Q: What sequence folds into this?
């Protein structure tokens, strides 16, 4: 086994550049040829790769507790199941109230119903965790801080400027969220639509959901239903169910 | 129409694979956050506790990450990825419930919460003992390193930041940052491989 400890810095740098993909195609080709001819070099390279792989794995593991905090602070914690047993009496009482409420609601006019459904299902998107010192994404997270403080106008101004320079589904999504949060549903609609154009966007299900809500707020039930049908996320399905009643 | 859907899916899949190889944290965080609820519900409904569901979920997430990067799992879409993650977590929990260690804890003091460890069932373990021993030494050594080296190596190899950017963050010039990287890697090797000499 090659003696790793005595790897000179020069050799280390060469191997590192290769493993990190920093060599030009010609350089890489030459280096790979060298690896084939020098079995010790090959061993060094394989061990370097193995080391890097496990550094990445442990670094990820260390970050997961931090990622977990996103869950605790977001509204999705509402979805956690109740511990067994404890709440059933409240459940029964709540069901009775719900039944009475549903009956009353059934009597109400459609537009009031839209408003009611909107209030029931809408919560401002919690946004992304703000990890400051993020280098090139500083501007984005700076606006995110404003968003989280409820300074939607400021967040919008900042994000608009960034979006003009370089548009992205992330920016469009949060611009839509910010407009919706400050109750300007109409302005939010084009932004969510733009998110939907990026089929690989991680925000796509949320975009469908919020667009549906934005249409509802605008009293456009038909468009809301049309849009919500396009997603099979649970939130969309639940809202659709209530709309179809 | 079918072809269109397939093209869209493979686009989604490629983007996801790219995001996982580059460790795009926005994507990783979001996928992590979006999938916990369902796993948590499963574990709680099957004799588990919240700390256990968190551990299982994190182990599963790492397996997902490894499998995508090694090409063992090729996600066609976000929803197939989500489904796969859920399956991994579910299987891990079921394995744990069937394991000897769990059966022992049921007989012993039930209030003893044991942190779930991914070393139990040989049938489900991925690597052979020798390889995983080496891997464990490296990861333990990384954990034990000083914060400065840990942060630096994490920025270089996980976040894949450039030396220039890292130098800027650490208030060093690129050359000093590079030297530091070399020294930290040497240190890591010493910590990881020296132990084996002493058994």
A:
């Amino acid at each position: 086994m090659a003696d790793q400890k005595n790897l000179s810095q020069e050799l280390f740098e060469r191997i590192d550049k290769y493993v990190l993909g920093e060599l030009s195609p010609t350089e890489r080709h030459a280096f790979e040829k060298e690896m084939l001819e020098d079995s010790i070099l090959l061993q060094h390279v394989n061990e370097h790769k193995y080391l890097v792989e496990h550094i990445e794995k442990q670094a990820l593991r260390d970050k997961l507790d931090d990622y977990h905090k996103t869950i605790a602070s977001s509204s999705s914690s509402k979805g956690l199941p109740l511990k067994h047993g404890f709440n059933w009496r409240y459940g029964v009482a709540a069901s009775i109230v719900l039944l009475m409420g549903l009956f009353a609601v059934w009597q109400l006019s459609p537009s009031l119903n839209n408003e009611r459904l909107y209030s029931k299902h809408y919560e401002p998107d919690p946004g992304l965790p703000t990890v400051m010192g993020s280098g090139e994404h500083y501007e984005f997270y700076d606006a995110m801080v404003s968003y989280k403080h409820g300074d939607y106008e400021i967040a919008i101004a900042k994000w608009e400027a960034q979006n003009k320079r370089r548009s992205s589904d992330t920016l469009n999504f949060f611009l839509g969220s910010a407009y919706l949060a400050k109750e300007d549903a109409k302005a939010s609609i084009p932004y969510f639509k733009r998110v939907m154009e990026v089929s690989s966007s991680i925000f796509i299900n949320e975009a469908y959901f919020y667009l549906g809500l934005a249409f509802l707020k605008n009293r456009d039930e038909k468009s809301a239903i049309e849009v919500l049908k396009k997603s099979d996320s649970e939130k969309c399905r639940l809202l659709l169910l209530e709309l179809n009643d | 129409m079918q072809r269109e859907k397939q093209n869209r899916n493979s686009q989604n899949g490629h983007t996801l694979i790219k995001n996982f190889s580059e460790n795009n944290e926005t994507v990783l965080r979001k996928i992590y956050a979006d999938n916990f609820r369902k796993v948590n519900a499963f574990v709680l409904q099957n004799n588990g506790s919240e700390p256990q569901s968190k551990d299982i979920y994190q182990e599963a997430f790492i397996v997902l990450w490894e499998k995508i990067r090694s090409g063992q799992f090729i996600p066609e879409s976000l929803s197939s990825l989500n489904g796969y993650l859920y399956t991994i977590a579910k299987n891990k929990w079921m394995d744990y419930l069937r394991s000897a260690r769990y059966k022992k804890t049921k007989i012993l003091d039930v209030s003893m919460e044991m942190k779930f460890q991914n070393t139990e069932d040989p049938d489900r373990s991925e690597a052979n003992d020798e390889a995983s021993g080496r891997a464990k030494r490296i990861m333990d050594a990384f954990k034990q390193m000083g914060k400065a080296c840990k942060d630096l190596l994490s920025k270089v190899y996980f976040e894949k930041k450039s030396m220039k950017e890292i130098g800027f963050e650490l208030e060093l010039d690129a050359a000093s940052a590079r030297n530091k990287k070399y020294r930290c890697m040497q240190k890591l090797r010493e910590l990881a491989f020296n132990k084996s000499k002493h058994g």
The radius of gyration of chain A is 26 Å.
